[in-house]
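Before relying on records like the one below, remember that each one covers exactly one chain. Contacts with other chains, cofactors or solvent are not represented anywhere in the record.
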Amino acid sequence: MSCPHLTGITLRPPTATQQVHKDDCTQCFDTPDQPWGIDVCLSCFNGGCDSPDRNHSFQHYRLSQHPIVLNIKRKQKPKKVREESPAKILKLSIPGESEADYYDTTTRVKCLACNGLELDKATPDIAEVVNGVLTALSSTKQSEVKAWEEEILPCEHTIVLDQDEAKVLADQELAHCSQCDLKENLWLCLKCGNLGCGRQQFGGVGGNSHGLTHFEQTLHPVSVKLGSITPDGTADVYCYLCNEERQDPNLAERLWHWGIKISERQKVEKSLVELQLEHNMKWEFSMTNESGEELQPLFGPGFTGLKNLGNSCYLASVVQCLFSLPTFQERYYYPNGDLPLTLDPANDLETQLRKLADGLLSGRYSLPPTGEEQLESPYPKGIAPSMFKALVGKNHVEFSTMRQQDAFEFLLYMIQTIRRASHQTHDADPTKVFSFVSEQRLQCLGCKKVNYKTDVQDNISVPVPVERLSTGSSQDNQDFEGVSLKECLDRFTQSERLEYTCQACGSKDGAVTRTAFKTFPEVLVVNARRFELVNWVPTKLDIPVVVPDEPFSLDDYFSTGLQPGEELLPQTSPPSDNEFVANGGILSMLEEMGFPSTRCEKALYNTGNSDPDAAMNWLFQHMEDPDIDDPLNIGKVGSNVEISEGSIAVLADMGFTLLQAKKSLKETGGDMERAVEWLFSHPDDDGSTPEAQSEHREVTAGDTLMPALFKLHSLICHKGASVHAGHYVTFIKKTIGEQPSGTANDSDWVLFNDEKVVRGGEVDEMKKFAYVYFFGRYRG
């Protein structure tokens, strides 16, 4: 029987830039490894499962009227070990591997309009497009390669470098830093031959930044790390003017200028790339109990792990916490498989969030391994959130990469992204459970008059007091006095003195300010700030915080507002479009950390004026801006700014409304990068007047019911010296149902470590050092 639907259809192989969804279904996590395989549409290359109970492939056909598909099924070959010789590191990239090394693959072409009639793959037109699909990079691999590749290229400063008069450096001149006794992490200035130690590196590599000091004093831009030089001519070359690792095409010649023969050098220290990769790979959370026994794997609904896509544990930890909350489960989990009708499900956020909820909560992908899989690992394979990561990180300067990221920053980004999407579609917003109103009370020390200001927040970042114990033997190995969560909350809500000139009495004696809760959220997110700046690098401190197991009250931190006998400071007119008043409390906090006032004001202006962590991150990202120390000038911002229609279109493509796009560009003088930052810092601003937005959110943010009791629900933990490296896992308190091992229903802590999901773990220890805590409202 011939197929009439081939007539009039033009099938073309995918181009290099087209997404080919053949790794998993775009609407669920079924893969070609399932018995039914994946159907790849030969018209638009959507991937749909052919499962009897879901059949997303047929749903796509009914919507798109694309009947011809390629069904792909795979069966994993027995495990084999391959010896690979290490490649010379010139760039980071995904190594090319053949699927045939791992799988036996079967394919067939069929017509869905003809009830799955199988078509001849050898037909010339069909054969060409089938071959194109099979040889194309899948959408997953395409995203990974694009995100991973990190070229290390020359720059103008390494290409054109005028060296000082040549001389042979004596051995003693190459033995240690010219300004201290450090003998490793040494950087040779290729301009003048000075030897200075590098910046302290995450992972314990020492450094006093004397190489950087030399650059600041001389502006000599290019240095090479002595211990990284290899006989074949590679080395770490750093350009301080570019603030990037670079290549020097004339490295051997320039080293010989200082009497260093490159063929006689041996690499004795890890390169910057190796340090980064090793640091991100070496962290491992214990998967055994105190007796040394393997922790018990868990299976079934709510116990599905997420594969690590390469430094994606930050995403997995946040996603597991969010989808353990009832509001996210009710909003996105549809047991009947209900999904939005869309021709492009891979790029539809609602579809991908429902797909993620189904993958995590249905239990479909959390079955005990059998056969050879069981011999290889006792854990299920988990699901790969590749499609979701590519979509949610699209166009974001950090989350679109494959680098490790800060889990707390990603949590805030996720909340903003979901909230914006919910407002645009008028759907229920599951992130409302995080919102509450804080109130800042300011009192003039001269006339004693007061002012109250409210702000809507989704989290609090509490400072953890630093008390070092004398037993610490070195800067890198220190012990700290433990503190209680109450001490951190006391510190967060305590009164602070500010520099202040009173508009009522003219006094310059200053003011006292205090922040407290005006309403309480349903879920309180607490970020524990255990950092201090070491050579301008934020370094994590292992300060234990004692968090109670039992419910605790926040009633003492409730703001009662204006009290009898208090007199309000006179109301000042709100700032005009060309004025900006920095949040005094956060400004003081940043200044105490050593940042200049001008920089702090710019950071607060560009990050919404309410989040100290966002402001601090902005400061680190913009430290090298040439105008960073220029006074804040927003006079050019406003209605007179010419807004490019192209810029508006780009922001609209990212999911923002035209009103939001226009306002963000006006607020930032037409600067696209700053406009995107502004939009993510103002997720509830729909482009209309800010007064309307603030009034609407305050009505719905939190409640004033007391006692305001909270109990620990989940936590995100991190191992590593920096939140941008190391490894993240999540602990969640869950009810554990019937398991293959025969466990009865009970409640316990569950560890989510990428695809591994187990009962218990070192939760008591990790509670003390968690990075983000989720406390749920306790109502008895």
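The chain has a mean pLDDT of 81.
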